[in-house]
């Protein structure tokens, strides 16, 4: 009797049970059904075709656009004892010949292949001779021009259906809005298939936004407090800032590497490889970094500048915590950044329609930053999903107080107006606070009726108020880029008291020792376990380096965390750990049991 999907999940992958819709999808495909699977990153898409591949006769063909990802997946499967190979431009002629021979002889369960190779006549003939078990089309959004990552080679894939009408196809993607979804179904001719949609939520990612004061120090505090020794990505807007931030982090004792389009290809590749193959590397990057990286244990994604849009933000932060363990998305948000982005839009010569869309996107992004509601709720609502307050974002764990800001707004707007709508926030706040700066004296601004009328708030609070007024368009920075503020078109109603507005009260920074400790990334309660965890990690790294593979293909962090907690003493106990199947038990139990044993002795 053939093994059941659950048997395979336990024996090969070492997981006790399926997640979400996995079981249903797998049954559907094993029975020969076709499917489009929409599941967020880290949702567990791979198992949806890997298990059917092992249950059905013949070799499963996996189409994937990114060579690096293929290599990783194949390596991970081999570690599990699964017979897998990748055919792409990185494979030598001889190697390709061997793989094709193995396919003919029925010696492979899964073959990953680049779309352009799959569609060659030679390869299609080979497939005709070796009975494919199924076709999995990964990153299926690449077939759509609506998607952000269109690949013309994907358009050919519709042919598979005609050439191999009896072979089930399963298309998978993490990003597909309505039009893209439609496109995938049409172009891949999947109209008879079932669509499986999992929600977009990434419950293990904790979202946090803080107002920008000194971004670098804020970043360092964040890493030092919550993410010592973790792998992370820091996004900056410009190359210069990437370089500067990376060297600064290095000077503070961290392992940080820059990554941007201005670096030589070779150097970029080296930095990316170190990020993947070492533990605890932080990459500081422009948005060019991240595509095609499948590292499951990225523990944090920090933005020192505003991302381009909420879509971009969700995608970038989605690179954290693919393994399902706790991870954080940390955004440092400055009023100036919002102003600059608005100027870029207004000052560009794109058509009005386009500008309107860009304005809406920016408003959505700023709305997210300034919200007094649960961040997750705001994010998911933007993508069309309802959500309850999540309990795992900064607002949920520390609700922002809001206040009737009408009077403060009136004062701020009048001060901008009285000073001639040409000064930046700093000077206008000086006027509100009744400051005695040289500029105020030189300009005679102490004579203004708004001079000193804002002493009830601190400078910091005023900054927050100005930021929020800019975010909702009541204040508009000049297009020349000098930071001068003028009144937005909707000001009148506020000035006349016809429109009331609510503002959030930014929590003042509390002293360090009062701050609630955020949940530790790995949620390991005892220090002893933490030491053991580090020792296990070191052993994993040594094993990985000896084989030239990334550490996470040996064991994911989640397995090591469990190991540190359960402290197995026998292979029987070791076999119970999640992520330990038969192949890894045979291969690695001895090594890791020795580390656990040495640790226990030391503690006695
Ligand atoms: P995706 O391709 O959807 O981003 P993956 O297939 O890479 O996600 O899976 C994400 C992580 O979840 C991997 O570490 C994988 O081993 C793990 N995983 C998937 N399914 C299960 C399961 N049923 N039980 C435990 N872990 C799982
Ligand atoms: Zn929340």
Describe the protein's architecture and organization.
This protein is an alpha/beta fold. It has 4 domains: 5-197, P-loop containing nucleotide triphosphate hydrolases (Rossmann fold, 3-Layer(aba) Sandwich); 205-397, 3-Layer(aba) Sandwich (Rossmann fold); 402-506, Arc Repressor Mutant, subunit A, CATH 1.10.10; 527-603, HRDC domain (DNA polymerase, domain 1, Orthogonal Bundle), CATH 1.10.150.80. 46% of the residues lie in helices and 13% in strands. It is built from 26 helices and 17 strands. Strands 3-4-2-5-6-1-7 form a 7-stranded parallel β-sheet, with helices on both faces. Strands 8-13-12-9-11-10 form a 6-stranded parallel β-sheet, sandwiched between helices. It has a two-stranded antiparallel ribbon with strand order 14-17. α2 (22-30) packs parallel to α3, α14 packs parallel to α21 (459-471) and α23 crosses α26 (582-603). The longest helix has 22 residues, at 582-603. The radius of gyration is 28 Å and the shape is globular. Residues 15, 18-19, 22, 39, 41-47, 296, 322-324, 556 line the site of adenosine-5'-diphosphate.
